[in-house]
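Inputs:
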Amino acid sequence: QSALTQPPSASGSPGQSVTISCTGTSSDVGGYNFVSWYQQHPGKAPKLMIYEVSNRPSGVPDRFSGSKSGNTASLTVSGLQAEDEADYYCSSYAGSNTYFVFGAGTKVTVL
Amino acid sequence: QLQLQESGPGLVKPSETLSLTCTVSGGSISSSTYYWAWIRQPPGKGLEWIGSIFHRGITYYNPSLKSRVTISVDTPKNQFSLKLSSVTAADTAVYYCAIDSNGYYFDSWGQGTLVTVSS
């Protein structure tokens, strides 16, 4: 059982927006601004999309945005494109005993 | 830009030790201040952080795996390694090595290598 809770699936039509939630506790998501999001296409390695809650690495489209409220972080993909269809995983730093926890992943489908 | 490549046996017998190596290219493993991490993904399942090593040899392990995991750095070979002892079928997974540039997220990943535990 994953430490962070994500919906198993989400979907939207091209051009629409989709938001994925990631719920943890005050010991991880709520306690630190170190939430990150990863995109994984089938058979490929994960790719960092968002770090420190809302920062985008160089090269990641600004259609991807992140936020956090309390123990829940969110990833929003605006202007959905076919290539956004993938699995998305959230992760959070969880302190000096547990270090890192992940969510179980959300499969985003572009209708 | 640093690139990573995992290597090692694709099949390990139950109760034996899984050993993988990650070769770093595009820079020196000893000249950076990065954390070097191992993460795994069982088939069809989510990601699990295994552990990380700071370039000075300080290690951090997932508490659930700590008793079986050793991560080390081989500076002359520009590699870091994972050893997981007493493996079972539950350890079957794609194993990724990754770079953690500041201690809180994984910037770049290797392509991953599938390790199957079976007799």
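The interface with chain A takes residues 45-49, 52, 60, 62-63, 96, 103-112 of chain B (CB under 8 Å). Flag for discussion at group meeting.
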